[in-house]
Design goal:
alpha+beta, GMP Synthetase, Chain A, domain 3, 3-stranded mixed β-sheet
Length: 186
């Protein structure tokens, strides 16, 4: 044991002397240490930011796939009805999936060593917060359903310029391809 310690100490001293003698090597080591410290500090700040992004949602704020679809249809109808020359308009939005909630979790780990046995245990718990005496899970992220297509029925749906304007507006607003937008005369 003492022999290993002497070899390690000698190795450390050799490295220190080489770093002191070579200016470029010294700068590389210093830059490496500064880089590692910056990464460590950024991780600390990142974890603080992610906690502040977490929210809780009351029952009346919970969005289902249907309410998301209805809200999207209402907003989209409001905006495309302002297109010059479109006329009377109605639309239908199709979505894939439902609203998903990702809850904040607290991870507890345990490590037990008994002789030759090693055991690790993991336990996830959803973070619960108390708002005015009401306990709610802390929501980390909300994933909305994906819009897969839009059907627009308008009185000018047979005019190419209107079809083009509506397809561009809808595809831009919902970030879907223009081929997923159908415009017809009604």
């Amino acid at each position: 044991m003492k022999l290993k310690r002497i070899k390690v100490n000698k190795y450390i001293e050799d490295v220190k002397s080489k770093i002191r003698q070579n200016r470029k090597l010294f700068l590389i080591v210093v830059i490496g240490i500064v880089g590692m410290l910056m990464i460590l500090i950024s991780e600390l700040f990142e974890s603080e930011n992610s906690v502040s992004e977490d929210t809780s949602v009351s029952d009346d704020q919970i969005v289902t796939g249907d309410t998301y679809k209805e809200k999207t249809e209402k907003e989209l109808l409001s905006i495309i009805s302002k297109i010059d020359g479109i006329g009377a308009t109605d639309l239908l939005v199709t979505v894939d999936g439902t609203t998903e909630y990702i809850y904040a979790e607290e991870l507890d780990t345990s490590h037990d060593e008994n002789g030759d046995d090693q055991r690790e245990g993991y336990n996830n718990k959803i973070v619960i917060i108390d708002e005015n005496g009401v306990q709610r899970p802390l929501i980390k992220k909300i994933i909305e359903p994906k819009v897969t297509g839009v059907l627009v029925v308008c009185s000018s749906g047979d005019r190419y310029e209107i079809i083009n304007k509506v397809q561009k507006a809808v595809s831009t607003a919902l970030n879907i391809p223009a081929s997923s937008v159908c415009v017809v005369k009604g």
